[in-house]
Amino acid sequence: MIETQFRISYSMLSDVVKDIDEKQADFQLELAKNNIKWQLGHVIVANESFVFGTSEEGNILGEKLGKSFSPGTSPQDFTGVE
Fold first, then answer.
1. Nearest-5° angle of CA 20, CA 78, CA 67?
2. How far apart (Å, rounded) are the C-alpha atoms in residues 44 and 42?
3. 67 and 49 in contact (C-beta within 8 Å)?
4. Do residues 68 and 76 make contact, with C-beta atoms less than 8 angstroms apart?
5. Cβ atoms of residues 44 and 65 within 8 Å
6. Is 0.85 topped by the overall pTM?
7. Which helix (H) or strand (E) holds 76?
8. Contacts of 17 (CB under 8 A, 6+ apart)
9. Could you read off the pLDDT of 22-49 as tens digits, one per residue?
């Protein structure tokens, strides 16, 4: 059941963002701390943690994503390489 919910949530998220181009995803309002791409990263990290546990529980992907999207990080620091 969790696997089904996981797939459904990613499918729905994909449908929501499918028409957003790279420029729109990277756009950040002057007063905002996040952009669309950054918010998606946080959503994916949270979803990974709910389904697969935390990095302390052996979630390797969550650990890698967490380095990029953990509290205190920002879109300006993101390289996309992590």
1. 115
2. 5
3. no
4. no
5. yes
6. no
7. none
8. 25, 36, 40
9. 999 889 888 887 889 888 888 888 777 7
